[in-house]
Structure formats: structure tokens, C-alpha cells
Amino acid sequence: MSNRDALQRYHENKAEMLAGGGQKRIEAQHAKGKLTARERLDLLLDKGSFVEQQPYITVRATEFGLAEKKFLGDGVVSGTGKVGGQQIFLFSQDFTVLGGSLGEMHAERIAEVQGLALKNGCPFVQINDSGGARIQEGTLSLNGYAKIFRANTLASGVIPQFSVILGPCAGGAVYSPAITDFILMVDGVSNMYITGPDVIRAVTGEEISHDQLGGAATHASISGNAHFRFADEKSCLQFLRRLLGYLPANNLEMPPVAESKDGPDRETPELEELLPEDPKRPYDVREFIAAICDRGSFLEVHADYAPNVVVGFARLHGRTVGIFANQPKFYAAALDINSSDKAARFIRFCDCFNVPIISLVDVPGFLPGVAQEHGGIIRHGAKVLYAIAEATVAKISLIIRKAYGGAFIAMSSKALGYDRTLALPTAEVAVMGAEGAANIIFRKEIAAAEKPEAMRQQKIDEFREQVMNPFIAAGYGLVDDVIEPRYARIELIRSLEMNIRKREDRPTKKHGNIPL
Ligand code: HXC
Fold first, then answer.
1. How far apart are CA 181 and CA 163, in angstroms?
2. Residue in 171, 245, 318, 405 annotated catalytic
3. What value does the mean pLDDT take over residues 436-447?
4. Helix, strand, coil percent content, the chain, rounded in steps of 5
5. In sequence order, which ranges of 89-232 are alpha helices (DSSP H)?
6. Residue 376 is a catalytic residue
7. Three-state DSSP class for 387?
């Protein structure tokens, strides 16, 4: 073959490879309101930074007509690129090729970039748009999934992993995203389920649409499987670029420090207005977070799921922190099963990737109720205690109002592992609320009183005044300092700077056994 012919062959192959499933299928993809695998990469990566890996991989199986359905790349585009200058590895499934289905070589290509991401210590992004296991390839497909699940698991805690669901993700295919750290979904585009509506109808008789069963809204608010939900693909991928900018490349690096226009000495007098006089009245803790963090820096995780806890990434004078806050707007901020799961998983991510934790505390305790007890609140609540005790990152707590019982321990206790616990003058630190406490320990006095209700109120007030005020806990050294609301941001930044070099070791072990 002459050099000219070799070059000609190169151009033909490259054009074929770039065309994926061909123009007609690309048009069909667009007609569904979806972008193609390569268009998605263009939106996610810095311009011109994509380096493709193994673009000419193709199917080896020949059964059921696959010999005539050979596509270069085998239905997935993979490689490396940069986001804001930071190297990441990624793949993007190409639905125009056999529905993005996963066969032996498609899986090999994914496993290759998973391996490179882990060896190089770079974040990994997977864009899923696939009909699942390639049915014609049978067990070879299952073998491919198993390799991918294992690679996701081995990379867990070493590099951050993100799954962007931009199409169907059905059957066992859902378990790779589920093992990764964050799942992002888009309304009207993404679907995730183990078995689809048809199988459900056949087995249980239930009628449900694809979207109601496994769309973005469902997973963002009901199941909690999705951490972020977006109106369209573009905003989803742009958000992921922003999120990556908060995180280190791997577990051995610190998160990048951003240039902060918001000064470390900005006072927060608005917090005095925000907190109601009546401790039973709610306020929106998101406003508290917005006030103390660098302006506009809060990226909420799981915003629509278990809203009694608010978690997310923010910046404090340019440093990335993980916010773990109670939200008095929902269930009076009591911790329940779902919010415990949400908080514990977020805390563990922060600890994996050296993100300090800031707890903002206003919590009456764990939620009472038969459903909660029978649902295993003991086990689920224990996850939060475990995650905090296990975490070796800097942990700062600020008690805003209530810090009662086990929830005080989970969110503020130095004995559990917080490095610095601060309290506002409005803080109430106790085993339980004043009403409950007075009813138990002064039961006889109240019953014997001439005016029991007046006596009850007197005892409640006495208890609140004498036992719950933050100077009692500060006197025991359980609260390190009592601070004014207007200095909350300043004090949190100082507390962070004071603990940012912290080193803490744990006994050598294979791994802990968190109550799951
Ligand atoms: C092979 C597949 C495929 C698959 C889709 N295609 N899924 N080929 N294996 N799993 C092909 C279709 O035959 C079609 O090819 C092309 O992709 C586009 O599919 P359409 O059906 O035309 O697209 P659409 O109408 O958008 O529907 C998308 C879909 C549907 C909802 C995903 O294709 C579907 O239900 N697919 C099967 C899903 C499934 O049951 N997968 C296996 C799950 S079991 P042509 O050439 O005809 O256009 C599983 C186990 C994994 O994944 C376990 C791991 C532990």
C-alpha cells in the first residue's frame, strides 16, 4: 500500500469512527432532545483538550448479526481531557451505536480509562446513555459490567467519580453509577431503574410511566439516588465543571484554594435578624449558609431529598468546605432515616477528599415515631456518628440554637471528634428540650403544685435558664467559645485556618464496618 493509500485509509477510518451510528441516528438522537456523545464531551471539557483513547476498538462477537454491525469505538467515546485546566478521565456512551449497549469491547474500552484515571489519580466522569447489556453478547456483557463495578469500587475514595445519566440506564447498568460518588440527572432525558414499567406491570400489576418510575425528579426527591437535577444537558455539564473546581484530583491532594473576593473579615449582622425570638419558629438555614460562606459559593447536594438536613460544598475565604446543616423548615430539623443517610454519605465523601466539615447545628434530636424505629433509625442514625468519628478532616461545629441529645453528639461533640465547637448566645445544649426535661425530672413537684401549669412553666424556664445556656457547656469545655452572630463568618474562617493542617491517624485495619 502506498503512503497516499495508507493516509486515505486513515482518513476513511477516522471519518467512520467519528460518525458513530451515522447521520440518521444522530438526527434521531437530536429529535429526542438529546445531544450526542461527542457533543456532550465538547460541553464538559476545556476547548481542544480531549485526547481519545482506543477510538478504533470494535466488537469481536459475531452472533445474532453482530458481524454486520461493527462500529469503530463500539458505542462509547472515551479518553482524557481538562476541566478548568484539571485533568480528568471520562467516557460517554453513544446511543447511536446499538443503543449505546454494553458488550465485551465497549466494556474493555471503559475499563481502560477507569484504570488510567486510577493510576494517574484523576477524577473520573461517566456519561451514561445506554440500553444496558448488549443482548447479543450475553454473558460477555455481564462480565464487562462486573469489571466496571469492580473498577468503580477500587477507585472509590481514591478519585472522585461522577455519573451523568443522559438517557436510559436500566437493569444492572444502574449499579455502576450507584457505586460512584455523585449522580447527575436531567428532566425528560434521564431514566434509571432496575426493571422498567413493562416488567413491573407484569409482576406487580402496577402502572407507571418511565419518567415517574425513574426520571430525574423521582430520583432527586423520592429515592435519593440522584444528587443533582437539571432542566437540560447544558446546565448539567456546566454545573459539573463548577463542582470539579471545588475538589482535589485525588485523596492525596488538598482541594484547590480559590481566589476569594469575599474578605475574611466580613461581618454577618444579618444573622441577628434571621434568628427568630421564639426558638420554636423556623428560619431557612440556607440563608444562614449564604451569609457565612463566600458569596454565591454554596453548591447544594441532594437539595430535594431529606430536606431536614442541608448538605453541600461551599467556600470559606477560598477554601472548600462541606456544610452539614440542620434545616428547621422541615420536621423542625429532627434527624430521620433519610437525612441520616444523606448526611453520612456526604461526610464520608468530604473525608475521603480532604474537605473540612462545618456543622451548623439547630436540632431537637432524632425523629420520634414507630415508622422511624421500625425502619431502622438506630442503624441509620449510627451512620452519622460513625462518619463523624471516623473522619480525620478538620471538623468545626457552630451551634445556632438547639443541640439536644444524640444529635448534639453527632453534630457538635468534641468527644466524638469535632476540633472546635462554637456556640451563638442563643444556643441550647442539653440532653433534651426543656419541656421534656422538666416534665420528667419535676413530675412530682408539678403534680403536687396548686397550679400545675404555672409550676410546669416555671420549671421549664428554670431548666432552660440554668442548664441549657451555652456557658454551662462552655464551662465544661464542651463548647470552645461563645460568639456573636455578627462574627460567625470571621470565627469560622479562623477556626478553619487553625485546623487546616490537622493530621490524625487511625489504627491500621482492612476497612471499618459502617452500619449500612
Ligand atoms: C442490544 C440494543 C439494546 C440492548 C437497545 N438496543 N438496547 N441492542 N442490546 N440492550 C438497540 C435497539 O435494538 C435499536 O437498534 C437501537 O438500540 C435503538 O433502540 P430503540 O429501542 O430504537 O430506542 P428507544 O426507542 O429510544 O428505546 C431505548 C430503550 C430500548 C428504552 C433503551 O431500546 C430498550 O428497552 N432496550 C432494552 C433495554 C434492556 O432490557 N436492556 C437489557 C437490560 S438487562 P435498531 O438497530 O433496531 O435501531 C441488563 C443486565 C445488566 O442490562 C446486568 C449487569 C449486572
1. 8
2. 171
3. 88
4. 45, 20, 35
5. 104-120, 139-155, 175-179, 197-204, 210-214, 216-217
6. no
7. helix
Q: Are 355 and 313 in contact (CB under 8 A)?
A: yes
Q: Whose CA is nearest to atom 17 of ligand 1?
A: 99
Closest atom, ligand 1, to C-alpha of 99: 17
Mean pLDDT confidence for 211-230? 98
Q: What percent of the chain has pLDDT over 70?
A: 100
Give the separation between CA 305 and CA 51, rounded to whole angstroms.
Answer: 37
Mean pLDDT of 234-263: 97
Choice among 226, 407, 438, 474 that is catalytic: 407
How far is C-alpha 434 from the chain's CA centre? 35
| Residue 115 grid cell | 484504570
Q: Let me know the angle formed at the C-alpha of 85 by 84 and 87, rounded to the nearest 5 degrees.
A: 110
Cell numbers standing for residue 387: 462518619
Q: Do domains 3-244 and 270-427+479-499 have the same CATH topology?
A: yes
Q: Give the type of residue at 88.
A: I
Q: Where are the domains of the chain?
A: 3-244, 270-427+479-499, 433-468
Give, using CA atoms, the residue closest to atom 48 of ligand 1: 98
323, containing H or E segment: strand 319-326
CATH topology of domain 270-427+479-499: 2-enoyl-CoA Hydratase; Chain A, domain 1 (3.90.226)
Tell me 102's DSSP state: B
Encode pLDDT of 317-335 as tens digits: 999 999 999 999 999 899 9
φ/ψ (deg, to 5) at 160: -65, 140
CB 514 within 8 A of CB 387: yes
Beta strand pairing call for 299-301 and 228-230: unpaired
Residues 495, 405: Cα–Cα separation, whole Å: 24
What homologous superfamily does CATH list for 3-244? 2-enoyl-CoA Hydratase; Chain A, domain 1 (3.90.226.10)
Atom of ligand 1 nearest to the CA of 69: 46
